[in-house]
Amino acid sequence: MKIIFAGTPEFAAVALQALHDAGHEITLVLTQPDRPAGRGMQLHASPVKQFALAHQIPVAQPVSLRLDGKYPDVAKEAHALLQATSHDIMVVAAYGLILPTSVLTIPPHGCLNIHGSLLPRWRGAAPIHRAIEAGDAETGITIMQMDQGLDTGAMLLIEKMPIAAGDTTGSLHDKMAKLGGDMIVEALRRLEQGNLPATPQPEQGVTYAAKISKEEAALDFTLPAEVLGRKIRAFNPFPAAAATFAGTTLKLWQAQVVATSEGKHTPGSIISADPQDGVIVACGSGALRITELQKPGGKRLPAAEFLRAFPMQGGKFD
């Protein structure tokens, strides 16, 4: 099929490669404008744009597609480009811009979205983070027919995936990106065969995955250890869970829940800190064994290496 692809991060780039490798003709790629990144804050192309340029696929980067928005001239130009580009369908994956009805109605077969959750659970911007943070036992990918709502369209394909005890957003993202690529290829195969029925989303079980903010990274050790352990995994690699020790804000990358005597230690206090066992911190209930940490300007280090230069025995997280 001839496809217009809209996406921006690595999750989308994996799907774009899967479609390309499956022999589909990508006639145009839409992706977010280049953004400053890194210490030099130089402009960087998105992973989707990098793939497109490497494979001589035309790229457009409108700042908006809304004709009634702040950039109507840009949106009008983008609409004209979409209408002039030969295609059968649009595939969308983590694009980052709202697709108005005026865009959704352009492709002959509409717009299919690769969404990283088992809809209707975790509609919205951060479904992988929120599933881990909430302690969900499983997640998955939904291929959805897009409509005007926020991830409210009919479901075309859905496949479950377990969330492992040690999964971070980073590790789960990579597994789900691969699954999403495989599933969109399968969805288009079925569509070409006329065998892709749509199922409306149930009205019950709707939850929303709000965008992750950096403010959420600060850990409150009065919470149960299980809750904090999930937050650390959910915020790895972004925005990275953080806590302040002796006036220094440390990033906490890996931790496991351990048992401790209830009420014996003040939440946030360091129960022990040694190279073998890591840094064990008292929580509202239970404790966390922190095994990977990072100080400002430093590298992510296993607890054994970190403690050589940053002793923590007997201290307390504020």
Automatic annotation (TrEMBL):
(6S)-5,6,7,8-tetrahydrofolate binds at S117, L118, L119, P120. Residues 211-310 form the Formyl transferase C-terminal domain. The keyword Transferase applies. The keyword Protein biosynthesis applies. Pfam families: Formyl_trans_C, Formyl_trans_N. Keywords: Protein biosynthesis, Transferase. Residues 1-188 form the Formyl transferase N-terminal domain. GO terms for cellular component: cytosol. Its EC number is 2.1.2.9. InterPro entries: Fmt, Formyl_trans_C, Formyl_transf_N, Formyl_transf_N_sf, Formyl_transferase-like_C_sf, Met-tRNA-FMT_C, Met-tRNA-FMT_N. It catalyses: L-methionyl-tRNA(fMet) + (6R)-10-formyltetrahydrofolate = N-formyl-L-methionyl-tRNA(fMet) + (6S)-5,6,7,8-tetrahydrofolate + H(+). GO terms for molecular function: methionyl-tRNA formyltransferase activity. Belongs to the Fmt family. Attaches a formyl group to the free amino group of methionyl-tRNA(fMet). The formyl group appears to play a dual role in the initiator identity of N-formylmethionyl-tRNA by promoting its recognition by IF2 and preventing the misappropriation of this tRNA by the elongation apparatus. This is Methionyl-tRNA formyltransferase.
